[in-house]
Amino acid sequence: DVKVTQSSRYLVKRTGEKVFLECVQDMDHENMFWYRQDPGLGLRLIYFSYDVKMKEKGDIPEGYSVSREKKERFSLILESASTNQTSMYLCASSFIHGLGLAGRTDTQYFGPGTRLTVL
Amino acid sequence: GENVEQHPSTLSVQEGDSAVIKCTYSDSASNYFPWYKQELGKGPQLIIDIRSNVGEKKDQRIAVTLNKTAKHFSLHITETQPEDSAVYFCAASRSYTGNQFYFGTGTSLTVIP
Question: Which residues on A lie below 8 Å from B34 (Cβ)?
């Protein structure tokens, strides 16, 4: 079974703090993703990565950055947390069949989520 | 970019009845459509998916249908049980050219015993 773990289930931080959310997958997946989930808005993509040290902006990257130094680990960084970043953060990973970006991607597997509150 | 709309946002059914959730998408190049179930306090889990080369797929009490012409796809749950109560998300993706999934806004399903 694919396992995606996130470092914290609940996190409370203060405005202006630097926040690190960690995600680890154990299935050697190439792709990893960070979403935020808000009521009525569904899942919105923040950043994704299709290889080590590679990153691509999603739909809402402002205020966030990411790091992927190892294939199994993808970190989301809030450089200076603000109250409007209070949300549920979900990490996911997926596998590519075939060669490079032209290969067929498999479905995404999600971690349990981190509920972040910024005071 | 792709836009996925999902309806209804909330749905209540009696145990044993059927539930249907509908999604529409805008990008005719989308070719992969997964459905996820999210239980309280957990991350979304894949329950069924369909690719654009088929029109219907079934897995026990769950089925998904796809109408490429109309650009809509639906989730059907038959003989609902209380443990089907959860939030369901649809998504669309161009799985052959990229990795980004576009999610609907979710449907909160309540099955009343």
Answer: 107-108
